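Much of our argument rests on the idea that a fold can be written as discrete symbols. The amino acid sequence and the backbone structure tokens for this protein are reproduced below:

___
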Amino acid sequence: MAANISAKRKYNIIFVIDGLGMGGAERLMVPILKNLSREYFEPRVCVLHVKDGNPIAEDLRALGVPVDLLLIPYLRDVTAIPRLRQYLRDVKADLVHTQLEMADIMGNLAAKSMRLPSVSTMHTMPSQDMKLKSKLHQTVELLALRHFCNKVISVSEEARKFYLKISNLLPQNLLTIYNGIDLSHFEHLNHQQDRVKIREEFGLPAQAKILITVAVLREFKGIQYMIRALPAVVAKDPDVYYLVVGNGTYREALEKEVEQAGMKDHVVFAGQRGDIPHLLAASDVFVLPTLTEALPTVLAEAMGASLPIIASSVGGVPEMINEGENGLLLSAGDVDGLISASASLMADEGRRKAMGERGRSIVNEKFNIHVQVDRLRDLYLGLIKEYEK
């Protein structure tokens, strides 16, 4: 489509997001804005909260993308919409793209009131047994998307079906665009060098086989189930270790799980890291025992590093994992399944290698950042053209 639309000038695309902590939606901003066409667009980010110091803001500024903090502490802030409207006027916004709950509500209200086109991306599939306050916020968010947003992006087909069911959004206004990763980060990895370096750093034996999970440490990520499975896996192969990368509110509970399982010598909590590709390259199998997920980008990263995957068959995960080809799918919370799958893959190096190679091929075909930003480019230009008529 882009070839058929000539830009009169570069358009100002304003990304409004709740915070810039280390969550999946926040981290995705970096590859998207790095690769979004500067032939057509000038991107800018407006962040509404400070989350863990907003570390992603520095990554974005390093790309030359301006990041502005417009503090909106809660939905009841009566000054929020006027301040956001003034901000959008000041930066001469041509289109608003919102991410996460507060931004979806405030950003779309402000954009609609100014006759600006808006797009929102839904990154998660919330639990249906959420608390009352969260359910009220979700209801307001869905109302804003239904009445004030031009196009809503779902990151998987399963998530799209979910939101069609609960939101009353028009099917033509809800589309699927898979999240992509920047494969350039995985092109020149020295797997053997990383294997040696990471084992030395964490004091693991040279022959250690590493199961790895990279996630924000929250209960619904299901890491506790892998910890419960680990004693049986280690009993079959004492060279197996579990590397948990990330921080979060559930870390203390996970550390207690490790103590109860008697696995302190076989589990490493690495904390927040900036060298994820190297950690993946040093590992043998990626595990994501999550309970709910729309489309976990970290699985694409694992595939980019040629890792086989064990994951729960929830949300959009089956759209990423072809059973038996690039990974193994299990029911959420299936400890016995985690034992069987982990022991099976750790015992078969040839199978691990074949699955990793297939995963690398799949990620290049379906989850490459260039595919995602090309679709965003066409979506933005189409909406801007409509509003310029």
Notes: The mean pLDDT is 94. The chain is about 45% helix and 15% strand. Residues 9 and 40 are 7 Å apart (CA to CA). The two ends are 17 Å apart (CA to CA).
